[in-house]
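JOB MANIFEST
job_type = single_chain_structure
chain_count = 1
residues = 148
[input]
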Amino acid sequence: MPKKAVMLATHDDTWRARLKEYNEIARSLGGEVEFVLVENTLPDDEIVRQSQGAIAFTVGHLRHAERPRLPGIVGRLPTVKLVQAPSAGTDAFDKIALAKLGVQVCNAGGANAVAVAEHTIAFIFALYRKFIPQVERSEEHTSELQSH
C-alpha cells in the first residue's frame, strides 16, 4: 500500500489537476506515495482526521496568518516527516516549531529558474532600449492626437 502525502489546498480545478499530475509522477516512479487532497478551509480536527497516516504535506495556500496552524496540525500526526513548500520561499512556515516536531521543511528552489531568467533578460532589454520612456512618449503623442 502506498504511503500518503497530503496536499493541503482548495478543491478547485487547478488543485485537482495538480493532484492528478502528482499521482501520475508518483506512479511512474514506482507508486510508493499517493497524494490526497485535503481542503485547507476545514477545521483542524477534520484536517487531522483526513490526514491520518500521512508522511508528508505540501501546502497549496498558506498565508502568514496561518503559520501557527500547520505545526498544530502536524504535531497531531506523528507520521509526518516532511513539509514541502510549493515555491522557493519557506518564510510562510514556522520552521523552528516544525523542526521541534522532527519535521523537515523543503522548498522547490529552481522550479521557476527559466521563467526568472527570461524575465531578467526581458527587463535588461527594456532598460537598455529605454522601453518605458518610449512607451510614455508614445502615450503622450497618442493623447495629443486624440485631443485634436
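[summary]
Residues 131-147 form the longest helix (17 residues).
The longest strand covers residues 3-9.
exit_status = 0
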